[in-house]
Structures are given as C-alpha cells and as structure tokens.
Amino acid sequence: MKFLYSPGACSLGIHVILEEIGKPFEGSRFSTRDGGTYKPEFVALNPKSKVPTLIRDDGSVLTEFQTIAYWLARANPDAKLIPEDLEGQTRVLEMLDYICGTIHPQGFTRQFRPVNFAKDEADQPRVIAQGKELAEKYLALLAANWKGGEWLLPSGYSVADAALFFIERWCLRAGITPPARITAHYEAMMARPAVARALATEAA
C-alpha cells in the first residue's frame, strides 16, 4: 500500500491506523501548506487534491477519511479496529462522520483556513472566532455524551479513536483546552506505540 499524507493534517488519523495494523506501507508526503496536493503527481492519483489518500496493492485508490478507515479496519480484522457486529460498526461510522464531517470542517477548517469561508480579509477574524466557538461546543457535546471508558465507544479501541486523535492535536494548535474526558483520551492515545511511530515519521 501507498499512503499519501500531509504532516499534521487529518491524515494523521489514518497514519495511526496503518501503524496499528502493522503491515508494510509506503508513506508519501505532500504538504497541504505549500500546495503539495495540487501538484500534478498528486492530482493524477486523487483529483480531489485531498489527504488522506490510499493506494491499495492492486493499484486502486481510496479517498475520504471515513472510507479509508473503514476499509482498513475491515480488511485487517486481526487488528481489531472495528467491532464485528453491525451495531458496533454503525456506532463507529457514526463517530467518524461526526468527527470528520462536522467537527473537522466547521470547528477547525474555519480556524485554519478562514479564506475558504470568507474571501474578504476583514471578515476572516469573525470566521476564526466562530470556528473556535463551534469546536468548543462540539467537543463539549462529545464529552457530555461519552459512551466508552478509556476509549470513545463501549466496544473498545477503534478507528474512531484515531480520528478523534487528530482533532485533539488540532486543539493544541488552536489553543483550545478540551473537556477533561477528551484530555484523558489524548493522553491514552499518546501512550500507544503506534501513535508514537506515526508522530515520529511525520515530524522527520
């Protein structure tokens, strides 16, 4: 497999999942900060110009965080990154959608890329402030409805935890102090060897 990522982007969550699985993969770095995902060699693989992108062993390409996470978990059952039962899988997908489809774009893309929401530079501070407010609201809601123990869901550690981890890293970048429940989760994630390996690679 070949994994296309940008250091510190949401693709960090997929990076963690790949490290948890433990099978060989080739990482290929394309920084979103310098327009790397718009370079011809990237666009040829993923015209969406987005990370994460995964090229499977048969040459087929998967895009979108939720899809890649689900496929990796189901294709590698020994890693136990998604429950075996339908209800458990549904709850994991529900969390993935909330993290990647709501918290990510509404809470953090507004803060990190305000130009996507307001072309007028004078309006961008308002967009950033709104993003921080929404991020804090969404994280508080997540913590208040926490169903698991150490991990996000009662079924145990899953790809949803890896998704939440990239949001937790972004809290540090944005100067947001998340609820205690989420801080505890972040600390538990940081203790995982797979997380340490992913962070070390992206920092290199």
Protein model, in words:
The structure is a single chain. This protein has helices at 11-21, 40-43, 65-75, 86-112, 124-144, 159-174, 180-190, 193-203; strands at residues 2-5, 26-29, 53-55, 61-63. It is α+β, with helices and mostly antiparallel strands. It folds into two domains: 2-80 and 197-203, 3-Layer(aba) Sandwich (Glutaredoxin), CATH 3.40.30; 86-192, Glutathione S-transferase Yfyf (Class Pi), Chain A, domain 2, CATH 1.20.1050.10. It has a four-stranded mixed β-sheet with strand order 2-1-3-4, covered by helices on one side. Helix 1 packs parallel to helix 3 and helix 6 (159-174) packs across helix 7 (180-190). The protein is globular, with a radius of gyration of 17 Å. 34% of the residues are buried.
